[in-house]
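Dear all,

This email documents one entry for the complex benchmark we are building for the journal club exercise. For each entry we list the sequence lines for every component of the assembly. Then comes the predicted three-dimensional structure of the complex as a token string, followed by one or two observations. Please use this as the template for your own entries, and keep the labels exactly as they appear.
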Amino acid sequence: MTPGLLGGVSLVAALILSVLGLALAVLAHTLRDGRYLEAAKRLSLLTLLAAALSFGALEWAILTDDFSVSYVANHSSASNPLWVKLVTPWAALEGSILLWALLQTAYTWLVGLRAGQSLDVWRAPVALGTLFAVQVFFFAVMVFVAHPFDAVPNPPPDGLGTNPLLQNHWMMAVHPVLMYLGFVGLSVPFAYAVAAMVARRYQSWIFETRWWTLVAWGFLTAAIFTGKWWSYEILGWGGYWAWDPVENASIIPWLLATAFLHTAQVQERKGLFKGWNFAFITLAFAATVFGTFLTRSGVIQSVHAFASGPVGAWFLVFLLGVLAVGLGLLARVSSEIREAGEVRWRSREGALLAGALFFGTFAFVVVLGTLWPLVVEVVSGAKVSVGAPFFNQVSVPLGIFMLLLMGIGPVLPWRNTNAQVVRNLAAMLVALGVGTLLGLALGLSLGVSLAIGLFAYNLTAIWLMVAQGVRERSRSLGIPAGQALWELASSHKRRFGSHIVHFGVALAALTIAFSQTYRVTEQKTLQVGETWQTRGLEIRLLSIGAREESNRFAAIAPIEVRSTSREGWGADGRYETRLNFYPQMSSPLATPVVRYSLYNDYYFVLMQFDQEKGQWATIKLIVTPMVLWLWVAGLIIVLGTLYILWPAGARVTSRQVSPMAGD
Amino acid sequence: MGWLLLLALALAQPSPNTPPPDFSPEVFEIARELRCPVCQGESAAESNAGIAVEMRRIIAEQLAQGKSRAEIREFFVQRYGDWILYEPPARGLTLWVWLSPLVGLGLLGFGLWRYLAGVRARAQLTASDVSEEEIARLEAELQPRERQP
Amino acid sequence: MLRFWPILVLLLGGLFYWGMQRPNPNELKSVLVGKPAPSFSLPLLEPYRAQYGPEMGVRAGLGKPVLLNIWASWCIPCRTEAPLLERFHQQYRDQVLILGVNVQDSEAEALKFIQQYGLTFPSVYDGRGRIGIEYGYYGVPETFVIDRNGTVLARHAGELSEAQLRGYIEQVLR
């Protein structure tokens, strides 16, 4: 039993089992027979095992340097360090699809487990069937087009090695997995939506998928932030988001999922927006398929692109299929969804809808911007580029509105406003004004000052809501404020968790404004021993040396940095800037040395050095303020999400006498 | 320094061994708006490709000559076309991508408004679903029964 | 409005299908086509100085069509292309000037390349690729076809095949 054989067989088994599962689900639906459903649920576990076996076989092949397997020969090397070998499965196309399929089987199995409680026998088969159909697609792609376990007739002594960009940082082990967990996670609410539309039960799916959507959203958010951090640490350009088409492909589902999270609440409370929610989740899931299509089809140029091939056509058909199923079903049932109700704009529902409006517009803009070069080429044959400067400028006004709405939303109660709310709003606007003026007084730009104002505005909103709730509870129950806060936080997890998440978002917006506006890049060539005085720093080039490592060769230029003024605070230290030379790359990879501080980040990159005598080196310095806080903000958002999701312990006995305002 | 000779041989892409000029922050700001022609989607500020390095040098020289940012951008557009700019020109077909936020807001906002109006209309309709005649009959039924024996 | 969803799906599908079917998605059309070729004068590589002088380049009034070939020693397709160019140089040397521009390279490596393939057509040294940028190059090899009036007729990105090279030569000799 070789890894190649095991992997190939279990892959085919997984495909067959998925087809069987789909067939059973279809039978359960058409024949209204629960026994087929039970069989499908059991099959989902078998499919998961087959997929896990296949994935394990791939790992086995990589770890044992089995170059008779095509994937290993093409993407691995005996000289790779152990941790690189462990993550090589998702370093290239075929393996990444296998990871995706594996995660999909896991989600399908979990849905099968929970379906007994949440889904009736009319809908469970459709939901499971949809998930099985997605699995069938991914396994079929591997079996027919992108097989990881193709046998290599004359196994080479060593493989071609892994892309060096993926070997530079341990984040490679984390970010892609998180991203796939998020992408695949969105298939579950989509499956529920399809089931809802087929069974014509339009309301309950929203409650049932609350948890699933939040989990998927949480993974997506974590993936985006870790991706930003990875890019920042690795690529040597001092930025964390380049609006690269594939980065855009991950933020489009995130934007749509965020819109959906919020409009779902409107449907929960008032039963409105049913059709819109079906559309949102269809588009969100389609956007994840769109992302995988972009990376694997060669349609758009990107640093993230996998090698293109016939896979692209398959993903295109799948993408169109998802859109057709979701939108087609919606078109069929939309006339039946006869909703009646009133939505006043100056209410929580109004704010949520307005927020969804902006998130949807933002997603629209990112899609259009990413595809516009292709559109222009189709229409006129000309080549244009739509890149970071465009997206950065366009996201500012949209971001401002979204931050304003984020503050107002929780403050407004459901249905309509009252005097207390008006007072709260006034306080928030005062905070906005004060923050902005403070920024301007400090000599900061208008954009950054506005960001400070918006941060203060959102902080005030959260503070007011929490303080109000605590005050009311402690007053009506006669308990101290601390206990009231504790009880409220435990019983209103969703509300408090969303406060935490919104705080994180406000902080992220503030750091993005600061770091984008005040980032400075400079470059200078230094002789060994020479000192460079700039930006409150004194940088001295100590020497130039070399080091040989298992899979690369590195030129090292250690520098000593001293901060000479407050501007360069936190930079002191000795750093080894390096250029990594990989045998399979024609030019060296500049890997930055990043020095974090609470205030500025200092980024040192070795650009070039004297190859003949080793007397000079060119150092690029990037100073970015407040970037550390962006990662803190990401952590806060993820923690807030976990807080909402955390299973409620012993519920605090409902001792509320008066309902909490606005809840 | 034998290892350096080894290094020179190891380099598959030999390049001239002269130190590059020093670059001010403005060079990178301008380079960030230009595309690296040879790379897959990196800007001239980030890329380490030979072309990008030379582009930064050209930008530095032109800044020293007193050229404006617009003139420097124009220099590259004359040689590579609009494609070299990461910010699409606001005319012709690419004007629409600049208008996309307004278009998006307009489309979605219009859809939202239509939907809400329809929902409200249906709410009012159900409120007045009962006809006048039926209301009169109800009123009559609710009158105290005077003539009951 | 929702009933128009098939149109959206078809449009998207059509757009992406076209995007995937494009023969050369990364090809960039040169904006110099139809315009006068930028003039320059660069130092020749050592073996050619005896015959052609210290410097050479494209300038107005040359009176001869030029095939400007941008190459580098580390570029693999250039190795396949070099003997082809050499052959055509031998055949058409009186009618067409085949001029090489060595970019992103060290002189030593360039000389080794010339020796290895026995190239007799002149090549100038543009170490950092400045003249390449003047011509809007985005990779190597690239060949610019310039007619006898100094106007750029075409830019060929990538390796030249014999048929294509013959086609360009015939085009400039017309």
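Observations: Chain A touches chain B through 70 residues (CB under 8 Å). The two ends of chain A are 61 Å apart (CA to CA).
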